[in-house]
Amino acid sequence: MKILDINSYPNLLDHLNLTSSEVCRIIESYTLSFPQVRNDKAEWRIAFPMFLTPFYKYVYNNNRVLNQNDFYNYYLSENKTFFDANKFDAEILEGLKARIYRTYPSLVRDLHFSLFVKENIEEAQIVYNRKLDVEEGIDLLIKFNDILYAINLYTDTKRAHIGREKKVYRHTPFENVKYVELPVNFKGSLKCGSFFLYGDAELNLIKKIIYPL
To answer: Which of 21, 64, 101, 145 has its CA 20 to 30 A from that of 197?
Structure first.
């Protein structure tokens, strides 16, 4: 039986001197670009280092979110040994850049929402842990009244559903966790500059689940 011990997963949110409102203030002046490049090798055939690891590393160390292009360059610098060893050509790197540019807004959205939930459900324990995310497929863990909820929010699009199905089957579920799948409107409920974020509407969906009538 696979049991989740919440104390085995340090909570990144406890170490960030950053609020959801501050995230919004940081990103509201950022522009977003989405190159229409689809390189087959960069999309499917090369196992690049994970995008979220350097994203959260920078946030953890700096209490700030990089813009889209700076994040791409930071990702390359954090994985310099990998890229020096592989010497990818320009087409593959352009395909990778397009992938990172597409992924970047969802990384920002998830960070913002984790902080937003933590600020607005103070009586619950709200946990983001990279190992839980990467190895167990849990985007956000909530403990309320001794019940553990694994919250997985993703945009209600065909591409997102396919990605979510693949993620689910990669992980063995914990016996003591209630898994909550919440596909939400593509644009979310909060607009901040060029970003569509999760806000009150998505928060209320979670509240309806952890506060049963």
So the answer is: 145
The count of structural domains within the chain is: 1
Contact between 198 and 109 under an 8 Å Cβ cutoff? The reply is: yes
Q: Is residue 49, in this structure, part of any structural domain at all?
A: yes
pLDDT in tens, 29-85: 999 999 999 999 999 999 999 999 999 999 999 999 999 999 999 999 999 999 999
Predicted TM-score (pTM) of the model is 0.91
Within a domain: residue 114? yes
Which one, of 51, 18, 15, 37, lies nearest residue 98 by Cα? 37
Residue 124's nearest CA partner among 210, 19, 198 is 210
Q: Is 63 part of any domain?
A: yes
Q: In terms of C-beta density within 10 A (0-12 exposed, 13-18 middle, 19 or more buried), how is residue 143 classed?
A: middle
d(CA 124, CA 130): 19
Dist. CA 52–CA 114, nearest whole Å: 14
Q: Is 5 contained in some domain? A: no
Half-sphere exposure of 203 (CA within 13 A, CB side): 19
| Residue 186: partners with Cβ closer than 8 Å, 6 or more residues away | 155, 156, 157, 196
Which domain range does residue 143 map to?
Answer: 10-210
List, for residues 156-193, the tens digit of each pLDDT value. 655 543 444 445 445 789 999 999 998 888 777 899 99
